[in-house]
Amino acid sequence: MILEAAFVDAKNAYCMCQVEIEGDLISRVGKSLTTVPDITFPPNTVLVPGIIDLHTHLRYGQDYKEDINTGTLAAINGGVTRVMDMPNNPRGFAPVDKDSYSRKLEWAKKGHVPVHIYAGIGPKTRPFREAKHYKVFMAESVGDLFFEDLETLDGVLDNYRGLQVTFHCEDPRILAKSKQKDTHEKRRPPEAESCAVRNAIKLGEKYDLDVMIAHISCTESIYHIHSAKTKVITEVTPHHLLLNEKMGIPRAYMNPPLRTRVDAGQLIQLLRAGQIDHVGSDHAPHTIEEKDEKNLSGIPGLDHMGQILGYLHLEYSIPLTVLCRAFSYNAAEFLGVKHGLIEPGYEASFAAIDLGQCKKISPDNVKTKAGFTVYEGMTMPTVPFVMAQGRIVKQDSELTV
Predict the structure, then answer these.
(1) Largest Cα–Cα distance of the chain, in whole Å?
(2) CA 132 to each of CA 120, 163, 235, 273: distance values in angstroms, whole numbers, following the listed order
């Protein structure tokens, strides 16, 4: 199969060229491989490497919220061709040892796109050979896999020396002092995050960890990361980039919460400068009833990742090459998969972003079982075509799986 389009990846904008696919890989790239390509895209549509989302909650063990089918359909809808799922699953489902991790791997194989999984770190866990990536929740968020004090966490991380650990950074002591405040934002203040970031960096240096800080939301955290003696991998979410606490969007509460317009603007500047390694959705598909009646934290977002990539380019003039690094190439390096460049031998996964056709986002067009979106009413580019590992999984804006 040969595609003709304006391709862009983390290194180059190729203008109009042709890409040949054999099986699940790119076999050839050139200006004129054939006079009759199988699919041709108009000039205002760019094909970028399929997005890799390293931060999703597909709700393993809670199928009433999401399942592997609807979660990966939402991914495809948003141009996401690989996802990584977080470990804060219900008791009995959390992947915290070899057996529970293996069971979740079997579940993950049922997805429409590859699903990678984090192993969880808790007060009584230890590393195991099968897992390469670990996630720790430094304070209570959603689920029961978390720590109540820094001392216990310090003792546990002694066992994980030299490994990759991603941190959800909120300080439990500050959260405890703030729990009677009158808003979600005040109950989980910026200093809870920044203090935890500082401690995560110290623990990383102490135990030689490969540290990633998930969903950075405030400028204070950035200060500590820039002051670190060793490399710290950074991740932001679309909602912390595009939304703020004053917008009053229904159901838009999560951990960490939305911050100020200044914080969001600073994150945008860092992304433009190439100082943010990953953009992850933090897809958390609670039901509408849970959001409205129980005030559970977290929002869905997989359906919109490709649209948001295009929106960041159009609205904030962030180069597509920079966005391709943060949305796909860096994540491929993190996972160790050959993905993210338009070159022979790389994975044939692409998302088409129609920069000339912007539409208002509606919950009618989401595939997540959650059935709502905090981006409703925003006008963004569309994602009419997706190829995942050589398979056409979305065409003419309709899923084909």
Answers:
(1) 68
(2) 11, 7, 18, 29
Q: From CA 146, how far away is CA 240, in angstroms rounded?
A: 23
Q: What is the CATH number of domain 2-47+346-399?
A: 2.30.40.10
CATH number of 50-335: 3.20.20.140
Q: With 90 as the cut, is the pLDDT of residue 208 above it?
A: yes
Alpha-carbon distance of 153 to 150, in angstroms, equals 5
Q: Are 85 and 113 in contact (CB under 8 A)?
A: no
What type of residue sits at position 95?
Answer: P
pTM, whole model, 2 decimals?
A: 0.97
The two domains 2-47+346-399 and 50-335 share their CATH topology (first three levels equal): no
pLDDT tens for each residue of 331-366: 999 999 999 999 999 999 999 999 999 999 999 999
343-382 CB burial, b ≥16 within 10 A, e <16: eeebbbbbbbbbbeebeebeeeebbbbbebbbbeebebbb
The single residue listed with the structure tokens 């692409």 is 350
Report domain extents, the chain: 2-47+346-399, 50-335
Instruction: Report which residue type is found at 37.
Output: P
Query: What are the CA-CA distances from residue 317 to residues 209, 309, 328 (Å)?
Result: 35, 11, 19
pLDDT single digits (tens) 18-49: 999 999 999 999 999 999 999 999 989 999 99
